[in-house]
UniProtKB/TrEMBL annotation:
Organism: Geothrix rubra
Region Disordered: start-end pairs: 375-423
Entry keyword Mitochondrion: no
Name of the protein in question: ATP-dependent RNA helicase RhlE
Database matches in InterPro entries: DEAD/DEAH_box_helicase_dom, DEAD/DEAH_RhlB, DEAD_box_RNA_helicase, Helicase_ATP-bd, Helicase_C-like, P-loop_NTPase, RNA-helicase_DEAD-box_CS, RNA_helicase_DEAD_Q_motif
Family to which this protein belongs: Belongs to the DEAD box helicase family.
Amino acid sequence: MSFESLGLMPELLRAVREQGYETPTPIQAQAIPTVLEGRDLMGRAQTGTGKTAGFTLPMLQRLAHHANTSASPARHPIRALILTPTRELAMQVEESVRTYGRHIPLRSTTIFGGVNINPQTKALRAGVEILVATPGRLLDHQQQGNLNFSQLEIVVLDEADRMLDMGFIRDIRKIIALLPTQRQTLLFSATFTDEIKQLAGAFLKNPALVEVTPRNTAAELVRQIVHPVDRERKRALLAHLIQSRGLEQVLVFTRTKHGANRLSEQLDKDGISSMAIHGNKSQPQRIKALEEFKKGSVRVLVATDIAARGLDIDQLPHVVNYELPQVPEDYIHRIGRTGRAGSEGEATSLVCVDEHKLLRDIEKLLRKDLPKQVVTGYAPDPSIPAQPIETGRQGGRSSGRPGGRPGGGAPPSHRARPGARGK
């Protein structure tokens, strides 16, 4: 199947070709024709499957007849709203809109918390057809009278399960109540829980159902391996693996913000360039760290679980679980950072005696045992007893509002064929 066969207009096909892609991913092949028909859609797909292009491309086509080059704000009312749980994902989605819409004169912008609201207000008042937003900051703008949804045609709820996990359900309901009842609604989620089904039942009308990845299935192209090691020798083993194997672009996950900072500093002392990214970092700090990592000037990016679904690096080769997550499903999201859109990847877990139960829970979720391999010189001491695991506020899923306004100051959580970065 080709993108041409999906019924996309020449301007979009040109943009896709310029990105070097010829074949749509399964979610794109199923979602694009459905969205072009104008139907509501419920899509279940794990991260890295190309779902963002699955709604971005047909959305651009459905709005293309509104495209114009007029300077008048009145000629650029909001036609589409894309809600995302985090600012990182909002930026990635809006980048996808710009990438694929480069030959169609539609305006887009993104609004999220943690930054000055005034430039966002200016952009909104200048007029935009496509708005990508986090829930909290969108409601801030609504209260200030900066938004008018009277001509909105399409709304997308992206990473809906994550938005519910982060406590955004009230804000989502408030936002949906502001929108015209006659609209096309698209909902994407990695899982279809009862809550998600209830949400879909309230907001979607006779939606088409698209599912491409079985629930809790780790990326097939990811090679997973466990290295048993004593807790005190994890950092030394990590440095050894990176240096002895010449690894570049390594995304390392820790459980706590403090642990991320500490590990990043230690790696730097070992001569391995590293930066940390987590909820306490400012937005400019996060953007800088991600950019440095993507271009290769930083070899290791250390992240907390809250970033597992907000980071998206094209063809990321290595993910390391320096500490296993307390929530087994977060292991899936972590290793989903690699092995994306046809690229092979490797997920390595450094497991000490304290984490044996966490490992069993992950293997139970995966329905298979992960291969174990002791690295020479780093065999664990069987006489060392297990200890309680250090946790942080972001060790698992948040049931409330993290870091102030949800979607405003919320820390990152969780995306080139159109299937890797933001596509």
